[in-house]
Specification:
The chain is an alpha/beta fold. Helices cover 34% and strands 20% of the residues. The chain contains 20 helices and 26 strands. Strand 14, helix 12 and strand 15 form a beta-alpha-beta unit. Helix 4 crosses helix 6, helix 9 packs across helix 10 and helix 17 packs across helix 20. The longest helix has 20 residues. The two termini are 47 Å apart.
Amino acid sequence: MTSQVSSPAEQADGAGESVVGEQRTPPRPGGGGKEIRRLDRVIIRFAGDSGDGMQLTGDRFTSETASFGNDLSTLPNFPAEIRAPAGTLPGVSSFQLHFADHDILTPGDAPNVLVAMNPAALKANIADVPRGAEIIINTDEFTKRPMAKVGYETSPLEDGSLSAYNIHPVPLTTLTVEALKDFGLSRKEAERSKNMFALGLLSWMYHRPTEGTEAFLRSKFAKKPDIAEANVTAFRAGWNFGETTEDFAVSYEVAPATRAFPTGTYRNISGNLALAYGLVAAGQQADLPLYLGSYPITPASDILHELSKHKNFGVRTFQAEDEIAGIGAALGAAFGGALAVTTTSGPGVALKSETIGLAVSLELPLLIVDIQRGGPSTGLPTKTEQADLLQAMYGRNGEAPVPIVAPRTPADCFDAALDAARIALTYRTPVFLLSDGYLANGSEPWRIPDVADLPDLRIRFATAPNHTLADGTEVFWPYKRDPETLARPWALPGTPGLEHRIGGIEKHDGSGNISYDPANHDFMVRTRQAKIDGITVPDVEVDDPDGARTLVLGWGSTYGPITAAVRRLRTAGLPVAQAHLRHLNPFPRNLGEVLGRYGKVVVPEMNLGQLATLIRARYLVDAQSYNQVNGMPFKAEQLATVLKEAIND
């Protein structure tokens, strides 16, 4: 879904992340005399059983919100089990959407509206809901057995425990079944459309467009037109219910964010989709075939699914039998002259580590995309974490340095993929791209770039001998390096006169012959390290308008919560500086100088202090860690409190 924005960008103030503005307008014509209130932002969370379609509901609401022109940020939250028992707490699935008429950075700290499809959804999410928030409850599910499953001895609808909230009891299941009574569906089949009824009700409440959702439903169920029309009917019934019922006396408007974006064409995009598009663009800009050797793993599998759709751009995807085969095939494709990629998560990186070391030895371009999740071992497959940094930095035998790039937002995954490809191709090295589950599944508006503005990633393959022996013979030396980048030549197999040997055993400098000479090994180890240290990366930029003494330093997906927290503090008159790292190996050359300017450096991470450990070791700076490893992203208010304490300490 795309939308046009044609006004200049404007920096949102800090209050945009913390204050809900409200204006009231008279009842609209034909609106049943109902009042319309204008808000500057809203946070909605859809929650239900994993079979209730909450992700689809949230995705459709998001798509319509994007087409309307709001800025937005989403947080899908999946159950860790493939199919937890229905109606239980482990089976609750939720989707949170924050949308606004201004620039926003996070999915929001707490929902203004909770849609709870059953008792488990209510109990799993009520702790996050602030007093005074609206809760729409599917009363049909609040019977004795479903409530007992999650420990409700009495109905929360009757015992006064929800008195702090604005409760809207709606028999969603009954109303849906009644709306579909003419379709000849069984009750069970009709009940499946209750999420569309809820979507229609929320679409009415917040004046979301409807045409896109109806077209989507007819397309999705094109082979089952009766089911398609049943879902459209349920969707419309939800809209009409909001329009006519007395329980919803107010609807809300959130204007498009016309001042939040530069002029351009925008679409809503998730991190994994942006990353896949970035890889396709990198292949095109390098004029190389793109090869993905991968094995399905949560939360990286969507990249494999997406790339498999783009054979017309020279993309070839290979779903291997395991992680080791996936990266082995990718490395073979790199040897054959392709822009090679392998995608995985932390457990897969562990299995791929030996082949990554081989790629370091072969000095071939290879992108290792790690969509991080909670660990160790299988850990939390559907929850986010950024605890693979030290694994990416050091998780191989021997001295095997690998560059590391980390995107900061879902849309930034596109640019990070191009940047990682630039490094891999220019310096002939494997490169880690560290995203995570929060970025992968979350979404935001993305300005579709002009192809003319994308970087030129074309390289030159070796085509002729590059070394002359003492007797005058011209030969090809596979490890004769570019003096500026220290990259070795990349020769396509089968090029006449360029036969050469590569492999995992240490090579002699230049000739590439097997070498066990101690001095040569020392030289090769230091040369490979020097190549990585010499990679050109931009200086880290510091946002410090007030000359602060405290710097908050982040990397990866902590960018949104950190920036939102910084805005809040500055709005309250507290000076704080911010810097965010995309390049984690090598670090930007000015990072040491930047860190030296500040009396305090605070490093929030979704791990136990991995970047802080590297900063302390490299720059001898007493960086203060603030850590969270609960499978969820930071909240802005949480970080604002921590940073305020650091500033005032």
